[in-house]
Amino acid sequence: MNRFGRVAVVGAGWAGLACATELVAANTPVTVFEASRQLGGRARSVQMDGHCLDNGQHLIVGAYTETQRLMRRVGAQPEALLKRAPLQLDYPGAFRMKLPALPAPWHLAIGLLGAKGASFGEKLSAALFMQRLKRRHYRLMRDTTVAEWLDAQGQTGVLRRFLWEPLCLAALNTAPGHASAQIFANVLRDSLGGNREATDLLLPRADLGRIFPEQAGQFIKAKGGEIRHGARITELQRDGNGWQVAGEHFEHVVLAVAPQHIPPLLVSRPAHEPLLHQLADYEYEPIGTAYLAYPASVKLSFPMLGLCGPLGQWVFDRSEMGGPAGMMAFVLSAEGDWDSLSDDMLAQKLHDELVATIGPLPPPVWHRSIRERRATFSCRPNLQRPGPGTAERGLWIAGDYTYSDYPATLEGAVRSGVAAAREILAGS
After folding, report:
1. Which residues are paired to 396 by β-bridges?
2. Is 316 left (phi over 0), alpha (psi -120 to 50) or beta?
3. What is the pLDDT of residues 147-176, one digit of tens each?
4. Residue 2: which pLDDT band, with cuts at 50, 70 and 90?
5. 237/325 same-domain check
6. Boundaries of domain holding 320
7. Do residues 107 and 199 touch, judged by C-beta distance below 8 A?
8. CATH assignment of the domain containing 372
9. Do residue 272 and residue 392 come from a single domain?
10. Which of the four, 27, 168, 212, 311, has the lowest number of CB atoms within 10 Å?
């Protein structure tokens, strides 16, 4: 008999799958309960009108070491499934920065100095800004908004417009005027402040399902675990030293669901009132992904280009990422005017923005939009975030919102799941 007993993992997003993967690798019996018919949670592939589309154009970078480790563990080889490229931020006609294949910190220094569109004074100011951050070990005296922090650090002009603010929006999915400067500093620490490989873009060559969720599901089953689809858990009951889930006994339960789904499961359990009060302070941000299918001859100069807006932030050439030729994916981050537009109007405006960026284009053949209303928590200053443990023994939580060092990213979700699994395996 395994000394940890049976574990129920509620939710088969990246956090739940990461947790279950770690547990079954340690020969711990696991049952995963997933309400939908598909693995991956908010980072999954979906079928729309005969097209396989990703629910969000999620980006993986070299700093996502735990994501890559777990991919390898389940047999999803990053070298085959992810196209590695040096970080390149390209806003045609406005700004371009590409980091060379040099050891840190020279890759960043030379990349900044060679950036096109920014003055020498701005480049020097940005380099000194990163040096100060490093000397302070990326810890701020107090948390504030990214906008206020950049103001205080003298980060203005082109580099603010095309480097710091887009990185903040991409990583935190929260506008710089509301986003946590400390969490953004953590992101800079592990990306631009890390080794050269940490800054690399790892562009998916396949849909999100194949990158991790599907292979993780196969790995869990091969190791004796069970995955139950269409299994929505609506209540938890104490059962001796363990828990009742769906009429079965488990020694441990991991709630790997979005924070807004936690309160209904714990509202009748007074011990968790502090956690529920904590989660009540959370606000949420949307993410939209608009797919525009052009004739196969349409291609971008690089798989990812920046848009000067006002709606889109980035456009990805899906033909470079395992998709069909001519398919473009537009990223719409955080709350904005885009969310009030119809799909047709949104597609037209994004088409116009792409034309303004790269020149004349034929009209798209078709378009589809995916909107996730509560895609991520709003990563605001001084937000108090829980860890994996709870007030009751054997009950754990996992999800990007519990990994306090990172914003709502795939890496944060994976690390949170691993942390919960390791707490269980440590006998906590």
Report:
1. 254, 389
2. beta
3. 999 999 999 999 999 999 999 999 999 999
4. low
5. no
6. 284-377
7. yes
8. 3.90.660.10
9. yes
10. 27
Same domain, 272 and 393: yes
Greatest extent of the chain over all pairs of C-alpha atoms, in Å? 68
- Helix 165-172 × helix 181-190 angle, to 10°: 90
pLDDT over threshold 80, residue 339: yes
- What does the pLDDT read at residue 320? 85
What are the two backbone dihedrals, phi and then psi, of residue 73, each rounded to the nearest 5 degrees?
-60, -40
Mapping DSSP onto H, E and C, the string for 126-186 reads HHHHHHHHHHCCCCCCCCCEHHHHHHHCCCCHHHHHHHHHHHHHHHHCCCCCCCEHHHHHH
Distance, CA of 313 to CA of 245 (rounded, Å): 43
Q: How confident is the model at residue 75, as a pLDDT? A: 97
Q: How far apart are CA 163 and CA 96, in angstroms?
A: 10
Amino acid at 178: H
- The yes-or-no verdict on residue 355 having pLDDT over 90 is yes
Residue 303 near residue 202 (C-beta atoms within 8 A): no
Inform me whether the pLDDT recorded for 358 exceeds 90: yes
Residue with tokens 């980072």: 43
> For 336-365, b where at least 16 C-beta lie within 10 A, e where not — what string?
bebeebeeeebbbbbbebbeebbeebeebe
72: Cβ contacts below 8 Å, ≥ 6 apart: 78
Q: How far, in Å, CA of 213 to CA of 417, rounded?
A: 13
> Phi and psi of 35, rounded to 5°?
-65, -35
What's the confidence (pLDDT) of residue 48? Answer: 74
Structural domains of the chain, count: 3
Looking at residue 1, its pLDDT comes to: 46
Question: Which of 367, 391, 170, 373 lies closest to 277, judged by CA?
Answer: 391
pLDDT at 317 over 60: yes
Grade residue 88 by pLDDT with cuts at 50, 70 and 90.
very high
Residue 82 lies in a domain: no
CA 293 to chain centre: 25
Rounded mean pLDDT of 359-388? 95
**pLDDT classification of 303: cutoffs 50, 70, 90:** very high
Shared domain for 93 and 183, answered yes or no, is yes
**Cα dihedral: 339, 342, 343, 349 (round 10):** -80
Mean pLDDT taken over the chain: 94
To the nearest 10°, report the CA torsion of 274, 278, 279, 280: 100
* Domain end position, chosen among 157, 183, 199: 199
- Do residue 191 and residue 91 come from a single domain? yes
In the beta sheet, which residues pair with residue 244? 237, 249
